[in-house]
Write a structure and sequence with these properties.
Strand content: 5-15%
Number of helices: 5
Number of strands: 2
Number of domains: 1
Helix content: over 70%
Structural class: mainly alpha
Largest sheet: 2 strands, antiparallel
Length: 148
Amino acid sequence: MTSIRRWLIFNAVGALGFLVQLAALRLLIETWGLGYLAATAIAVEAAVIHNFIWHEHWTWADRGNPGRAGAARRFLRFHLTNGAFSIAGNLVCMRIFMSTLPVNYLVANVLAIAVCSIVNYVLSDRLVFQPAVQKRGTTRISSREEEL
């Protein structure tokens, strides 16, 4: 898959995750009365889980290792990279934006998501969804090349 195509798919998944996060944030604040920081952390986690599922099956489907063990390792890496960065980044940004800008919490969250999105792509592409590589002698080949 080309880098441009992967970036476009990443952004399509991100747009859906964006909607999940904003809907969860609004529900948690307006219906359940949570504070904006606690609600942000929970909403980001919902988006992280949503995005992992779509990235696993669409954005980086060509890089997946078959089986549940491979998916579980990628899910853990995704949470330790994208999840941790997204939660921390969103919380820091929300605190800054809510205390310095005269904006609604949803607008502040949109800005926080924008700040975090590029770093999340790089983390996913370089650390989480690495191409499957096996070592044979001194030559490293991907599992896709091995099938051919």
